[in-house]
Design a protein that fits this description.
The chain has 595 residues and is of the alpha/beta class. It contains 20 helices and 21 strands.
């Protein structure tokens, strides 16, 4: 064993006792908290779930399995041969193309150091074997197959040598450079995060939030809170021009997150982009609920959210109609709202924009892997016990959909290297979790992901009104993003077939957030446009034309003819019946979980 290796081991041994003492203290406190009664949610993310899935109704393709085993043995033989040559002093023969495939193994030692090279290649060979074994299994249930592949990937990536001190060359370098202080700092970071996490899920810091203050450098577009109820505050933004479009815009953000992802800094703010283009903008800011709001369901969010807001906006602006925009879950809620209003012959909504929204949940993406027959009742029971479903659990589940980039990379930096995360506005927002009332969470899950009711006319009835998305006869703009891992764009495309109004579908580059928040000035992602709506999303993409830069100008061009003539812009809070309650961003958005 070389001097460096001995030194690394000495530092690890020195600080192991420190870690154990600190960990025992935190775990003891956690155990005391657990005595209050809580449902264990760890099985949501437990790799042992895979074992249960493999005990189901399956058939094994023995021929394919044997071929995979032979391929694995051949790979291992080649790896041993290469390792033997390296031990004899021969240089490793690794192609540059192979080096760049996996960002986890970017450090030079993974390809130049024989020991780390062997560890990496052996891990990748075993990973391929496990993944290919699942491919050799035929599942009677398609959902079970997707879950098996998902949990296999989670398990495989959790065992990456990059996730452990002794098998990550970057971490070993940090240990030597800092004389082991990175391990102490990493332990402190871990224990601090553990203390601030709910019992059911681990909340890892992804950014330094100390530099972000709502109302100052985030969510700082001027405006007033002009209305509030128990579920939301309504923001009326101050106009940037003396005149703006006649028909006001209402934005309904998802209630599983806070609204200000649409109003980050001045350059990225979608709200500012709309105001600058001459639109009158209102925004719903959802409450971060506690148990006293447990009985508010998905329909209550419709009544007390967009429907209540629309009525206030019509009075404030003296207009008969509004243009409605919904983001993600807010888009699903907006669709249900318009279908409900049209069922009442109410024409208050003039147009409808869907930002990364599912209406047909036939292709729900990997999020659906968390919802199975055994997990769904457990999730619902947890919400019932607390009165809310803890938003930090949702945050962790979304991070694990992109586990290497949104979980393990931070695990390595925060706890193994002992670094503090850098400030990043979108990750600050992503960490600012929001609870969901138990009734709303349960009704939303069963209505959408589990039973997929919204796509079927009459499957859902509210106050005697049959919900039929086909009654949405207003112009609709659908925006999806090509790399979205939460709302798959091909699944979102199916929503265009459910509404009856003239529809436009646009596909933006990047993912669920960055693809939407792609400003006109400096927007770095392209977008694709096809004026037609063929039957399949693949046909749509084949006929689409790529355009450089932001999709916002296309949206504004579509929205402008639907927004009426220019009028003198009213000042927020000056309506006699709707005086300003407070300055934006209001108080509901300020509540952070764990503080």
């Amino acid at each position: 064993m070389g001097t460096d290796e001995k030194e690394v081991l000495a530092y690890i041994e020195k600080y192991a006792a420190v870690f154990n003492t600190m960990a025992q203290e935190v775990l003891a406190r956690s155990a005391q908290n657990a005595e209050g009664g809580s449902v264990d949610m760890q099985s949501l993310f437990d790799p042992q779930k895979l074992g249960a899935l493999l005990n189901g109704d399956i058939k094994v393709d023995s021929n394919k399995l044997i071929q995979q085993q032979m391929h694995y043995m051949q790979k291992q033989a080649e790896l041993w041969q290469e390792a033997s040559k390296a031990m004899m002093g021969e240089a490793l023969q690794t192609k540059v193309a192979e080096q760049s495939k996996d960002k986890r193994f970017a450090h030079g030692d993974w390809n130049e150091n024989p020991v780390f090279h062997y560890i990496k290649e052996s891990y990748l060979a075993n990973s391929d074997l496990l993944s290919s074994m699942i491919d050799a299994i035929e599942f009677a249930d398609e959902k079970a197959e997707k879950q098996a592949k998902f949990f296999t990937r989670q398990y495989v990536n959790s065992l990456s040598p990059t996730n452990f001190v002794l098998t990550n060359p970057e971490v070993c370098e940090e240990v030597l450079k800092s004389k082991g202080q990175n391990l102490v700092k990493g332990m402190q970071n871990f224990l601090e995060d553990l203390e601030k996490s709910p019992l059911e899920a681990f909340k890892m810091r992804q950014t330094d939030s100390s530099g972000f203050v709502l109302g100052e450098n985030l969510a700082n577009t001027p405006g007033k809170i002009v209305y509030q109820n128990e579920l939301m505050q309504l923001i009326h933004y101050a106009p940037l021009h003396k005149q703006h479009h006649q028909t006001p815009m209402l934005i309904t953000p998802p209630f599983i997150n806070k609204y200000y992802v649409l109003d980050l800094d001045e350059k990225k703010s979608m709200v500012r982009g709309l105001l600058d283009a001459g639109y009158s903008v209102f925004m719903i800011s959802w409450v971060n609920p506690e148990a006293e709001l447990a009985d508010n369901d998905f329909v209550d969010y419709m009544r007390k959210g967009p429907i209540a807001a629309i009525e206030q906006i019509k009075t404030i602006t003296k207009q008969k109609k509004v243009n409605l925009t919904g983001f993600c879950v807010g888009g699903t809620l907006s669709a249900m709202t318009v279908a409900y209003l049209r069922g009442l012959k109410d024409e208050s909504v003039n147009s409808l924009t869907f930002l990364t929204t599912l209406l047909d949940f036939s292709e729900p993406g990997e999020v659906a892997n968390y919802f199975s027959e055994d997990m769904l009742p457990m999730i619902e029971q947890n919400a019932d016990i607390k009165g809310v479903f803890d938003g930090r659990i949702i945050g962790m589940s979304f991070s694990l959909l992109r586990e290497n980039s949104l979980f393990w990379s931070f695990f390595i930096d925060n706890y193994l290297k002992g670094k503090d995360p850098a400030p990043f506005d979108i990750l600050h927002w992503n960490s600012d979790s929001t609870n969901i009332p138990a009734a709303c969470f349960k009704q939303y899950l069963r209505t959408t992901y589990w039973e997929n009711k919204l796509k079927d006319p009459g499957a859902m009835v509210i106050d005697g009104v049959s919900i039929d998305l086909g009654n949405i006869d207003v112009p609709c703009y659908f925006l999806s993003t090509i790399a979205d891992h939460i709302v798959l764009w091909k699944g979102a495309y199916e929503g265009t077939k459910l509404v009856s109004g003239d529809s436009r579908f646009v596909l933006a580059g990047s993912g669920h957030l960055a693809g939407v928040i792609n400003p006109t000035k400096g927007g770095k992602y392209p977008h694709w446009i096809n004026e037609d709506l063929p039957e399949s999303p693949d046909e749509w993409f084949e006929g689409a034309t790529e355009h450089a830069g932001s999709w916002w100008p296309d949206w504004h061009s579509w929205l402008s003819p639907l927004s009426g003539k220019k009028l003198t812009a009213p000042i927020p809070g000056q309506h006699k019946d709707y005086p300003a309650l407070m300055d934006a961003p209001g108080t509901y958005v300020m509540k952070r979980l764990g503080e």
